[in-house]
Automatic annotation (TrEMBL):
Protein name, as recorded: Aspartyl/glutamyl-tRNA(Asn/Gln) amidotransferase subunit B
Quaternary structure and interacting proteins, as annotated: Heterotrimer of A, B and C subunits.
Catalytic activity reported: L-glutamyl-tRNA(Gln) + L-glutamine + ATP + H2O = L-glutaminyl-tRNA(Gln) + L-glutamate + ADP + phosphate + H(+); L-aspartyl-tRNA(Asn) + L-glutamine + ATP + H2O = L-asparaginyl-tRNA(Asn) + L-glutamate + ADP + phosphate + 2 H(+)
SUPFAM superfamilies, A to Z: GatB/YqeY motif (SSF89095), Glutamine synthetase/guanido kinase (SSF55931)
Family: Belongs to the GatB/GatE family. GatB subfamily.
Organism: Alicyclobacillus cycloheptanicus
UniProt keyword Nucleotide-binding, yes or no: yes
UniProt keywords, alphabetically: ATP-binding, Ligase, Nucleotide-binding, Protein biosynthesis
Length: 486
């Protein structure tokens, strides 16, 4: 292990990511076919997206809207006058024999995304954001005898986000992807479901001696279907390339894929054949003109972005950066938290409940925040009961569980479960007297200087009250009464 560590330290990791994001439009980019995931194979198709001769594409303005939104949210310069190009290649899932994409004039260029790495804010450059159509999906039979093609995905609008090689570790790659996903969800550009393919990622990774200006030979890694796997695959590549370089070898240019079963990367094809896609301007579409009014309307419609929200939670609610990061990672969670605070809860208390009980329950049940059985208002109601001392925090957690299971609110359940904490001093005074009378040994010990004996007396009262006595009040009353006996 120690040798691996020192070897790793001699090299710097350089990663660039290409992320494809499907836009959440109702219909495809050049025809009226639906885009819903999971439809029976080849049911969301028509002559246009199947590429029949003589058909013409009609651009979906909604897809352009979302692509501009993405480019603006990623701080890109917008090319207000741009065009579409044909990228020519043959593949069974591409019935036209070409993909309509953007070659030299993408919608957005020169943007950036900010991430927090070990408490430091870091900027990752974005080379370009361009709009294109998705291809279909080939499904290869496990026994290798045949392949089936589903064209439902053909023509679904897609943006490709290409990062600068600014990423310096597998962890930064994951943070960058989380930031992209979060921004896309906040701006309602895509649902970014990696398991459904609406967010896909390829990585270029190389190593170079620390301090070197030139990049090393890179490999491309594909087929990573979760953020965890992206990080894992890149960690494997760092290890593999480090071993090659440390032993004086050379990294070969190749495309590798992540094998989930073995948790390693394996070679797919070595020596990438030089692609010549013979790009040329798409003759069936006019140039895309984004006028100032259109662009300004989109700029004005963007919501507060995740990082701005995170910073605001730290300053406005005085939350720790960790809490702010967890709560703002997804906009539904942030909205839920803000609603709890708006309903009167203390921000840090609300944060503890949302990060602990709420997200814990939802994760265990595999539910989204929008499906939470406890509304923000009802959670605020429960927090109020605990804050007022009516029930203890421990009881509050039990009530929360019951709220999830029964759908009832906190006051109802507290009454039903007979949980009301006894804080009334006159009601507790009798119990204090009884405990003192029944436990002369503890009283004697306490008066003799053994402060621990107080705990035994408190315990008696908690037991006698079936846990309902407010321990703070009991403590105070006991001390007062015992002091009077001295
Ligand atoms: Zn169609």
């Amino acid at each position: 292990m120690s040798t691996t560590m020192s070897e790793t330290q001699q090299f710097e990791t350089v990663v660039g990511l290409e992320v494809h994001v499907e836009l959440q439009t109702n219909s495809k980019i050049f025809c009226g076919c639906k885009t819903n995931f999971g439809a029976p194979p080849n049911t969301n198709v028509c002559p246009i997206c199947l590429g029949h001769p003589g058909t013409l594409p009609v651009l979906n303005k909604g897809a352009v809207d979302l692509a501009i939104r993405a480019a603006v949210a990623l701080n890109c310069r917008i090319n207000q006058d741009c065009k579409f190009d044909r990228k020519n290649y043959f593949y069974p899932d591409l019935p036209k024999g070409y993909q309509i994409s953007q070659f030299d004039q993408p919608i957005g260029e020169h943007g950036y995304v900010e991430i927090d790495v070990n408490g430091e804010r870091k900027r990752i450059g974005i080379v370009r954001v361009h709009l294109e159509e998705d291809a279909g999906k080939s499904m290869h039979a496990a026994d290798g005898t045949h392949t089936l093609v589903d064209y439902n995905r053909t023509g679904v609008p897609l943006i490709e986000i290409v990062s600068e090689p600014d990423i310096r570790s597998p962890e930064e790659a994951r943070l960058y992807l989380e930031a992209i996903k979060s921004i896309m969800q906040y701006c309602e550009i895509s649902d970014c479901r990696m398991e459904e393919g609406s967010l896909r990622c390829d990585a270029n990774i190389s190593l170079r001696p620390v301090g070197a200006a030139e990049f090393g030979q890179k490999t491309e890694v594909k087929n990573m279907n979760s953020f965890r796997n992206v990080q894992k695959a890149l960690e494997c590549e760092v290890e593999r390339q480090t071993a090659i370089l440390a032993s004086g070898g050379r990294v070969t240019q190749e495309t590798r894929r992540f094998d989930e079963a073995t948790q390693t990367t394996v070679s797919m094809r070595s020596k990438e054949e030089a692609h010549d896609y013979r790009y040329f301007p798409e003759p069936d579409l006019v140039r895309l003109n984004i006028d100032d009014a259109w662009l300004n309307r989109i700029r004005a419609s963007l919501p507060e972005l995740p990082l701005q929200k995170r910073d605001r939670y730290v300053t406005e609610y005085q939350l720790p950066a960790y809490d702010a990061g967890v709560l703002t990672a997804d906009h539904a969670t942030a909205a839920y938290f803000e609603a709890v605070v708006a309903a009167g809860a203390d921000p840090k208390t609300a944060s503890n409940w949302v990060m602990g009980e709420v997200l814990g329950y939802l994760n265990a049940q595999n539910l989204e925040v929008s499906q939470s059985p406890v509304t923000a208002e009802r959670l605020a109601g429960l927090i109020r009961e605990v804050a007022s001392g009516k029930i203890s925090l421990k009881q509050g957690r039990e009530v929360f569980k019951a709220m999830c299971e029964t759908g009832k609110d906190a006051p109802t359940l507290i009454a039903e479960l007979g949980m009301e904490q006894i804080s009334d001093e006159s009601a507790l005074a009798a119990m204090v007297e009884e405990a003192i009378a029944n436990n002369p040994k503890s009283v004697e010990d306490y008066l003799g200087g053994k402060e621990k004996a107080l705990g035994a007396l408190v315990g008696q009262i908690m037991k006698a009250s079936k846990g309902k006595a407010n321990p703070g009040v009991v403590n105070k009353l006991l001390v007062e009464r015992l002091k009077a006996m001295q």
